[in-house]
Amino acid sequence: MNDVTVNAVRSNWERTAALVGIALLVLLLLASSATEARAAGFTRGFVDTVWESPGNPSQTPRQWAANAYGAGARVAEVEVDWSRYEPHAPRRRTSSDNPANPAYGNWSNLDAIVERLTVAHVQPMFLITDAPQWAEAKGRLRSDTEAYEPNDNALSAFSRALATRYDGNYPSPTKRRSSLPRVRYYQAWAEANLSIKLAPQWKEVHGSFENIGASTYRGMLNAIYAGIKAAKPSDTVIFTGLEAYGDAPGGQRVQPVTFLENVLCLNSSLQKVCDKTAHFDVLASDPYEVGSPTTPAINTDDASAPDMAKLTKVLQAGLRARTALPDAAKPLWVTEFGYDSDPPNPAGLPVAEQARWLEQSLYVFWSEHVNTVLWYLIRDEPGRDYATTYYSGIYFYSGKKKPSYTAYQFPLVVAALGRKSQVWGMAPTTGTVLVQERLAGHWQTVDSFHAAAGAVFDGLIAAPTAKTSFYRAIDGSRRSLTWTY
Description:
The protein is of the alpha/beta class and 485 residues long. It has helices at residues 12-20, 25-31, 34-39, 61-71, 82-85, 108-119, 152-165, 212-231, 256-263, 308-321, 351-367, 403-409, and strands at residues 43-47, 75-81, 123-129, 185-188, 203-205, 208-210, 236-238, 242-243, 278-279, 283-286, 324-325, 332-337, 341-342, 349-350, 370-376, 412-417, 420-426, 431-439, 442-451, 456-462, 470-475, 478-479, 483-484.
């Protein structure tokens, strides 16, 4: 999780944005048809550690994996700390890409996490992060960073060992004549545009700052890519989730647009400035908001929820310049996003507003052609340390569901689109979804859709005539939350 608070700022201006800001999406939707947005698919997931150790005896890790699937998630992040699984330098470098090398720690815990998610029909996404000190450059100046100029060769070997173990063919150490499950998705580091994740970020040269962190990350990304593809060419390598906000040059955070430009050897005019190339399959962002999901970042080179076009514009320039390889379409994922709720966090959003902003954020990302969104968290963290603990789950820590559970499983948004209204949602089961408006005190069906479980449904209906209108969707026995227009 990044160091930027995700607690909502609930000023009057932001509350207004929550109610009317969704109209900002009209330009996005007019610029790209809904058919195009649907073509790439839309997948939900979670970032959490409950698949490993939930700390609550009422729910086991296996039950939490099943809960994630039941809520509609099909992907779950699993953090793989390099320092944990390779705490010591291997004595034999020639076999350091072999998961059986004695230098590697005990894989059994990771095996169990992958197995329980796979059994629940949720795809694990490995997040490779946290370098061991033996693999870092000498002269480490920071103690609060997860990587200080890590060795690319060692990182590539670790990545290959990891992908080899989970290529779907590696023998299970506990089940005879069985293989460990397959893992297909690998993210190359967490929020590498932050100094607490990768250092150093800046180097002062003749009175100006150079973003050397981007060059370091390019080497790390290519190392991970090479290692993963050597083990399983069909695996997917995901770019670091770019933190949404940055500081002036020399600060602790690099603005995401600037960082991406530098990784792809582009200047601020998106012109190629070097011959280095970056290899990855998916672009990623962690676009945490300080307001509603429709609140754009103030600074040009920051990128919050409705600003994904800033990143895809840079990506397209990199593809044209052939500094982003391989030369193929690269989907966009949101690999972390969330809002704290009140309760339990007094500084969070009221639980009803958290639910509304959750489904609204899914709609925003869908409209921006995001392929996959991972919500942080499925369940609130324990304790009451509101400054450092997160309460953005769709479950309270007790295991009780919040309204945001329904918003996640069965989202519904109705938004202005010219003289019509855009209806958007995701079906919890396969069948017919009825969209209803409350008219004259009664619910009346205004549209219907046939959708598969987990699929997006969308269409246009007549704009409401009332100043305030209420909508809901019904899928068999399930009902969405009421959407207030």
